[in-house]
Amino acid sequence: MNVAVVGIGRIGLPLSAKIAAQGHTVFGCDINAERVAQVNRGENPIPDEAGLGELLAQVVASGALTATTNTAEAVAQCDVVLFAVAVDVDHQMRADLGSLLAAAQSVGQGLRPGTLCIFDTTLPIGTTRQVLAPALESGGLELGRDFHVAFSPERLLMGRVIEDLTKYPKVVGGVDAEGGRRAAAFYREVFGGEVYELANAETAELSKLAEGAYRDLNIALANELAQVADVHGIDFTEVAKAANSQPYCHLHVPGTGVGGHCIPVYPRFLMQGAGPSELSALGRRINDSMPAYAVERVAELLDGVEGKRVLVLGLTFRPNVAVTPHTNSVDLLREFEARGAVVRGHDALLSEAGVRELGFEPAEAMAGFDVAVVHAYHRQYAELPWREVAPLVLDARNALDRSMIEAQGVRYVGMGRPVTGD
Known about the structure:
Layout: E1 2-6, H1 12-21, E2 25-29, H2 33-40, H3 52-62, E3 65-68, H4 71-75, E4 80-83, E5 88-89, E6 95-96, H5 98-108, E7 116-119, H6 127-135, E8 148-151, H7 161-164, E9 170-174, H8 177-191, E10 195-197, H9 201-232, H10 236-243, H11 266-271, H12 278-288, H13 290-301, E11 309-313, H14 328-338, E12 342-346, H15 352-357, E13 361-362, E14 371-374, H16 386-389, E15 392-395, H17 402-407, E16 411-414
Parallel strand pairs: 1-2, 1-4, 2-3, 4-7, 7-8, 9-10, 11-12, 11-14, 12-13, 14-15, 15-16
Antiparallel strand pairs: 5-6, 8-9
Helix pairs in contact: 1-3, 5-6, 9-12, 13-14
């Protein structure tokens, strides 16, 4: 079959390549002309996405995947249209649907009768039916008669998208029964895995928001318990290991907040909608407070941070992936500078320009600092001479080997972990 994937970013491009590798003809649609040209050359614009480079070169060379900026023209040749356009929050912390709505209107201009459209982007409840599906009627076709719509949220981790596409059950819900049925059949054909066909699009939308809220609240609980552990000089990693040995407990890892496209965003979609969201709001407040808490802990250990030299290592939102939206490294920078510290940043995955775009002055050398904050523990940092970097290391995600740091004569402090010497 012919498939159009609208949005060939971190999710859409691996999705396009995987479907093309299954023997289908795929058009990757994007407004970024540079990205389109790069893909058509068979060049991988996302080098940290496992397995993508080889697969992309293969499907482009075979003609199974073609990228284009003419979305309507591509859609006019397709049986199925998948939307992989990211949705973030605006300055009011509400879903910013602008890019996705514009994409839906472009698709509507090229839709042909019989097409199935699937929104593969996490959304507030009711958005698929009330906002996006009607936008597809811009070309004159009628929803439910001439074309069908379903919602099927991405359940993927950036860096391993290709693996995750077949790792977890696909969840689908139709705007009408035919849309749900056809979407389920499509995913069974292209990926061959288990598909959960839910009652409707709204049920599927809430299922994805439930996943995100669960994780955000679990992290908030871990962050709160880590602060309790700090008060009593207890190591929270021991607490979590013991508690999680009971099969009904699954404590997550504390840290300096929650970053990325997903977990800090999706609870906001619940908070802007109908129905209670007090817990989601509370979880957001706790997690958003963690950068300030971590900086205060360092300030206590150093008798203040005014004039102190601080190095933040790993500025992306998580290790080994060059993705920066909602990264808490920016929050750490703000909190340290508000207390008069001199802050420098380093990231093994970002260019100097990328470091500056986040507001950091790049570190000229990783040595001679008063404290090193390891925010995203990229694999490139595993062999750092910590004693030269700083006499104190704050492990912002409890990701380091404490004994390795201390063996070099460096003080260690983690989130909910006693500092060396206490």
